[in-house]
Structures are given as structure tokens and as C-alpha cells.
Write a structure and sequence with these properties.
With 441 residues, the protein is of the alpha/beta class. Helix content is 37%, strand content 18%. The strands form 4 sheets. The chain has a 7-stranded mixed sheet, sandwiched between helices.
Length: 441
């Protein structure tokens, strides 16, 4: 179809979510670049939808591995097993945090979260699940109930949630909901302990992102991570760590939890681990799951533990190791963070720059003292960026945090161009908010 016909067909036949006026129709990708139906080129700072193209769009090693597996054995009945899945899960056990050895492959990260929650409830015999304000763990009926971002649930009639799922305040170092100061995080720990001890001590698990992605790349103080683990361990509550956006080299470590000495009982991954193929993973400790549980229908999906997903995952691991992407995430992340902090010296709208590795967020504000979110200006800036060949996304509860996470394989020239374009976006927001391009101008 010609571009006008594609646009018309999209409007008529495709059921959208989050549809926007500047919806671009892409036809080709190569590493950090994408081309639309008109042949126009874009740089992708989001690695697809928040990370699936972590090793680049249309990575040739992933494409070759998937093609080979598709020709040999793409699927099996879930009552049986395949060599590809066994080999991949064994290899994954060699790079997951200590003690986590058994993996279930799912169709995506949201499926992995839901499976982890069900497993935690089955293992503990308890029914309640806690998550944090600002959290995002998927948009199924159950995982939506874990959301700590109000708009993610508010669109649903009555903002329905699973009745035994609750949220507690997080320990955001920039906007702590319980107070200001370096020790404000301790109030967040007390709030968690009160939630754990309240009711009938029926909490099975706490689900948390080590760094909250959709919530705005929110990082917590080191002491908070330590105390959260203590509170859970003392009460026999399982800790489920959601590494769907942060895992597999993205944060300058194989897993973000390694940066903060967080030791999960269950880990969920997705997005980037499949190199563009839909894959989620739930990884559990061998001693946590009994043979009795594994013989039960605790989680049944047609595309669970499938060889095609395993082949994609194996290829991604090859790229991560051979191209030293953990180290590259550290290097590129340091370059981006330094550049963005330099922008903070020139533009009043830059309130905060945060995030480990190449998982960086820029928090744009109307007023630095009040930390008021520049929501409307960021909404305009998104469209301006698309018009200038930059694909970005503004997240956070107020939609004012530019989330910068391009492919870890981005070439240096493309990466520098991305940084220049983000500076241009920042100037646009400054002009929109204050009516002048730079501080003092």
C-alpha cells in the first residue's frame, strides 16, 4: 500500500491503544534507526516500546537464530519440552542473581509478573500482594491492579482492582511522598511495615521495580533497598523483583538488583531479553518450587516454554556477552548523564537527571523549588521531537520525565546525534515554559 492508503487502513482496521495524532507508520529498522512509509529516517531513544530492541532493531544475529529455529521447531505442546528451551534456561541460570535457577518462559513481561504473583500465592498460602506507588507491572486485569500510577487504572470503570492487591508509598529520592530530607525514606519503610503487619498477615509478596521505569526512572536510597529486604525476610514475605525494563545489561550490570545488593526470591524479565521477539521470563530459586507445584496447572499458556523464544533469548545473550554490552551501557550512560547534567546548568526546566547505566531520565519542571511537573510542555515536546526525527517518550506519573534508553548497540555517531536532539528538545521545553531559550537569555 501507498502511505496514504496505509494511514487510512490503520484507522479503519487496527484497534489502537494510546493512539496519537503523530502516529508514525514504520516499514524498516536497523539498529538505532527506523524508516517510515515515506522513507523518512528517525533515531530511536526508546529501543522500541521501552526496550525490546535493546540489541538494536532487526539485529542480524537474532534474526538468523529465529529463522533457523522456525525452520526446525518453533513450538511444542506444553506437556513436553524442547532442547532449545532446556539449553537456554540452563544458560540463563548462569547469569541470573545467586540462587535463582529455574526459569519459565512466557509470552511477555506482563505474563511473567502475573505468573510470579500466582506462584507466590501458591507457595506461601497467602492472598495479598503489595506494590509501590509509581509502580508499573503490566496491564492485564491482575497486573493493572498492581499499578501505582493512577491513570493506568483510572480509565477502567470504577478503577477496578484485585481486592487483595494494595500499594504503599515508595521512597522516591526526588519527590518522596512522605516528606523531604535525606532520611525521608525511613518513613516509607515504616509505611511498608505497617502494611505488612496490618490485617491478618496475609501478604504473600512485595512486587517492586528496583528502578521504576514508567514511573519516571525513579531510584531509591541504598538504605531503603536494605530495609525493604529485612522487612520482608522477617515476615516470610517473598520479594518479587521486576526487571522487565532494567534487566539484561541495560543499567550497567546484568541485572539492576545487583547494583543495590537486592536479592529477589523471584525475578521477572522481558522486553530486551527477546531481541524483538515477545518473551517474558520468571526465574525462581530451585528450593522455592516443589515437584507437586510443577505438576499442577498453576500457569498454563500456549506460548509458555517455547523453542522460538529460547532461540531469540540465546542470541541476545550472545550479543550481550560478545559485544560487552554491560560495559557499553555504563560508558554510554555516563556520557548521556554528563551531557544532561550540563543541560541542567543551562536550562531551568531540568529539575533532575537520574538512572543507572543507559536507563536515564530527565525530569522537566516548571519551578525547581516546587518541583512542579512541566506536563503540558512535555506533551508538546513529544510531537516536536517526532517532527525532527527523534523518537522519545515522556513518562512518570505526570508525564514529564524524558526516558532515555536507546539500543545498547547504538553507533557513536548516532548516539551523539541523539544527545544533540535531546538538547534541542530541552530548549523547546524551556522556550515553551519560560519564553526564552536558555538561562539568562
Amino acid at each position: 500500500m501507498d502511505p496514504p492508503d496505509l494511514a487510512a487502513a490503520s484507522h479503519r482496521f487496527v484497534l489502537h491503544s494510546l493512539q496519537r495524532d503523530r502516529c508514525v507508520i514504520f516499514v524498516r529498522g536497523d539498529n538505532a534507526r527506523l524508516w517510515d512509509a515515506d522513507g523518512r529516517e528517525y533515531l530511536d531513544t526508546m529501543s522500541g516500546s521501552a526496550g525490546p530492541a535493546m540489541v538494536g532493531h532487526a539485529n542480524p544475529r537474532v534474526a538468523a537464530a529465529v529463522a533457523e529455529q522456525m525452520a526446525r521447531l518453533p513450538t511444542t505442546n506444553i506437556l513436553h519440552q524442547s532442547d532449545a528451551v532446556i539449553v537456554y534456561c540452563a544458560r540463563l541460570a548462569g547469569v541470573t542473581p545467586p540462587g535463582l535457577t529455574k526459569t519459565a518462559l512466557l509470552a511477555g513481561g506482563g505474563d511473567a509478573v502475573e505468573a510470579a504473583v500466582k506462584l507466590a500465592m501458591r507457595v506461601t498460602g497467602r492472598t495479598e500482594i503489595l506494590s509501590l506507588h509509581g509502580a508499573y507491572h503490566g496491564m492485564s486485569l491482575a497486573t493493572m491492579s498492581l499499578a501505582g500510577i493512577a491513570p493506568d487504572r483510572a480509565w477502567f470503570p470504577g478503577a477496578v482492582r484485585w481486592p487483595t492487591f494494595r500499594q504503599v508509598p515508595n521512597a522516591d529520592t526526588y519527590r518522596n511522598p512522605l516528606g523531604d530530607g535525606p532520611d525521608a525514606w525511613q518513613a516509607s519503610v515504616r509505611a511498608l511495615e505497617n502494611a505488612l503487619d496490618g490485617g491478618y498477615r496475609q501478604v504473600a509478596a512485595l512486587v517492586m521495580e528496583v528502578v521504576q521505569g514508567p514511573g519516571g526512572h525513579v531510584v531509591f536510597p541504598a538504605g531503603y533497598y536494605r530495609e525493604v529486604q529485612r522487612a520482608c525476610r522477617e515476615r516470610g514475605v517473598l520479594l518479587i523483583v521486576d526487571e522487565i525494563q532494567t534487566g539484561m545489561a541495560r543499567c550497567g550490570a546484568m541485572w539492576a538488583c545487583e547494583l543495590f545488593d537486592v536479592r529477589p526470591d523471584l525475578l521477572v524479565a522481558g522486553k530486551g531479553i527477546g531481541g524483538g521477539v515477545p518473551v517474558g521470563a520468571l526465574v525462581a530459586g530451585d528450593g522455592l518450587v516443589t515437584e507437586e507445584i510443577e505438576a499442577e496447572p498453576w500457569n498454563i499458556l500456549t506460548f509458555m516454554n517455547q523453542p522460538l523464544a529460547a532461540a531469540a533469548g540465546m542470541a541476545v545473550l550472545d550479543v550481550v556477552e560478545d559485544e560487552r554490552l554491560v560495559e557499553r551501557a555504563r560508558d554510554l550512560g555516563a556520557r548521556a548523564t554528563a551531557r544532561f547534567r550540563e543541560l541542567a546548568g543551562r536550562f531551568e526546566v531540568v529539575g533532575d537527571v537520574r538512572g543507572p547505566g543507559l536507563f536515564v531520565g530527565i525530569d522537566y519542571v516548571l519551578d525547581r523549588d516546587r518541583k512542579t511537573a512541566a506536563t503540558a510542555a512535555c506533551a508538546e515536546a513529544w510531537g516536536w521531537a517526532v517532527d525532527h526525527g527523534l523518537l522519545c517518550q515522556f513518562g512518570g506519573i505526570d508525564g514529564n520525565v524524558l526516558k532515555f534508553k536507546p539500543p545498547l548497540t547504538t553507533p557513536d555517531d548516532d548516539f551523539e546525534r541523539m544527545l544533540d536532539l535531546v538538547a534541542d528538545v530541552t530548549a523547546f521545553i524551556q522556550q515553551t515554559v519560560h519564553g526564552r531559550a536558555t538561562v539568562g537569555a
